[in-house]
Amino acid sequence: MADRSEIVAQVTAALEGEAKPVAIRGARKVDARGEQSGYWVVSDARGVIVATGAAATDGTGEEAFEHACRTVGIDPAAPSGSDGAVIDAAGRILTPGYVDIHSHGAWEKSFDDGPDGIDTARAGHAVHGTTRQVLSLITNPMDVICRNIRTVREKMATHPDILGCHLEGPFLALKRKGAHDPNCLKDPVPELVGTMLDASGADPAAGKLGCIRQITIAPELEHGIGAIRQFAAAGVVPAVGHCDADYAIAQAGFDAGAGIMTHMFNAMNGLHHREPGPIPAAVEDPRVTIELINDGFHVQNPMVKLGFGLAPHRIAFVTDAMAATDCPDGAYKLGELDVNVIDGHARLVSNGAIAGSTLTLEVAVQRAVNELGFSPVSAVEAATLTPVRAFGFDKANPVTGAPLGLIAPGFAGDFNLLDAASWKVECVWCAGRRLR
């Protein structure tokens, strides 16, 4: 792979550039609807899939593929490797682009580090198949949080890969703060919620959606339930997490509009037979998407398997990745806090608390299939359709336009080609823009 600064420049230029028609054939398609060999897909100059199909013994599949190619301006007979030529997958796995709704950074940069930091961290995830991302912002002083929200809002105007931001703080329980700065934690009074929504560009009265997609809130805080209602009314999806809530309070949070559980098992009271806590409340509620960090460290393998089975089709793989992702061990920062990474595991220097992960969704899916024995369809669903469904992005919407999460006509031209044995990502497209 080229020098990382070159990769960042290439990925950024591709994302800020125009979509181009894409035609891929001879793939083993895996998405939430199933697997199919001999598969082909064609997307147009808008970055939207126009046709899909599979090879047929009577040749009709080939005819349909060639016709679809010509409708988007691709010559199906053009030599391989030429500009705009058909891509022969040669049996590689074709999946929708992975979507990470909870991640803080990569390649020594975080999404709190301004426009250039966002470009670097996004490239670090994009080359591993994460075509779209909700940028998670860490707990900081309120003015810093609002500045970072505005930066994300500005980047969204030119970057189709950025779905908005996730605020992991400052409305967290002190007892379950994890690696967040305790000096910056606050109760979510209405005035602070309004300040954040203003920074995001939201105008609830006018029905205008801002750039905040998700916010983690401990519902047991004094104004927790009210803040969940206030954010939900503005089109944000609140998430229950970093909390010490009992079962009833968690239920109340979901009833008030919370639609996500932030990284199940981590930074919350766990399962107990006489004190059920928030996890059963999320599991039994079909409205709730449940995040899970499948790295074997935040959640060990037996609990990953248990968690995955608790809520079929509602578990979304997330990384909670921080700046050290895809980097050597050493000293890093999480906000203003010092972090030390040893053997790929990040912990606060001050108290040893886990400080995010160094995971990519590529590895999460690889682990699910090759180590834990999950079905390929289920593993891919957890990194594609399930996370986008949490925000309604599986349907046409004002943020992404074309829906995400499947290889199907009308969906966005977000594709990953993977090695058939290792599930290593080899080629990546976002909305018809080739990133790798």
From TrEMBL:
<dbReference type="InterPro" id="IPR011059">
    <property type="entry name" value="Metal-dep_hydrolase_composite"/>
</dbReference>
<comment type="similarity">
    <text>Belongs to the metallo-dependent hydrolases superfamily. NagA family.</text>
</comment>
<keyword id="KW-0378">Hydrolase</keyword>
<feature type="binding site">
    <location>
        <position position="168"/>
    </location>
    <ligand>
        <name>Zn(2+)</name>
    </ligand>
</feature>
<dbReference type="InterPro" id="IPR003764">
    <property type="entry name" value="GlcNAc_6-P_deAcase"/>
</dbReference>
<feature type="binding site">
    <location>
        <position position="179"/>
    </location>
    <ligand>
        <name>substrate</name>
    </ligand>
</feature>
<feature type="binding site">
    <location>
        <position position="242"/>
    </location>
    <ligand>
        <name>Zn(2+)</name>
    </ligand>
</feature>
<dbReference type="InterPro" id="IPR032466">
    <property type="entry name" value="Metal_Hydrolase"/>
</dbReference>
<dbReference type="GO" id="GO:0008448">
    <property type="term" value="F:N-acetylglucosamine-6-phosphate deacetylase activity"/>
</dbReference>
<feature type="binding site">
    <location>
        <position position="263"/>
    </location>
    <ligand>
        <name>Zn(2+)</name>
    </ligand>
</feature>
<feature type="domain" description="Amidohydrolase-related">
    <location>
        <begin position="93"/>
        <end position="433"/>
    </location>
</feature>
<dbReference type="Pfam" id="PF01979">
    <property type="entry name" value="Amidohydro_1"/>
</dbReference>
<dbReference type="InterPro" id="IPR006680">
    <property type="entry name" value="Amidohydro-rel"/>
</dbReference>
<feature type="binding site">
    <location>
        <position position="298"/>
    </location>
    <ligand>
        <name>substrate</name>
    </ligand>
</feature>
<feature type="active site" description="Proton donor/acceptor">
    <location>
        <position position="320"/>
    </location>
</feature>
<feature type="binding site">
    <location>
        <begin position="354"/>
        <end position="356"/>
    </location>
    <ligand>
        <name>substrate</name>
    </ligand>
</feature>
<dbReference type="GO" id="GO:0046872">
    <property type="term" value="F:metal ion binding"/>
</dbReference>
<dbReference type="GO" id="GO:0006046">
    <property type="term" value="P:N-acetylglucosamine catabolic process"/>
</dbReference>
<protein>
    <submittedName>
        <fullName>N-acetylglucosamine-6-phosphate deacetylase</fullName>
    </submittedName>
</protein>
<feature type="binding site">
    <location>
        <begin position="266"/>
        <end position="267"/>
    </location>
    <ligand>
        <name>substrate</name>
    </ligand>
</feature>
<feature type="binding site">
    <location>
        <position position="274"/>
    </location>
    <ligand>
        <name>substrate</name>
    </ligand>
</feature>
<keyword id="KW-0479">Metal-binding</keyword>
<keyword id="KW-0119">Carbohydrate metabolism</keyword>
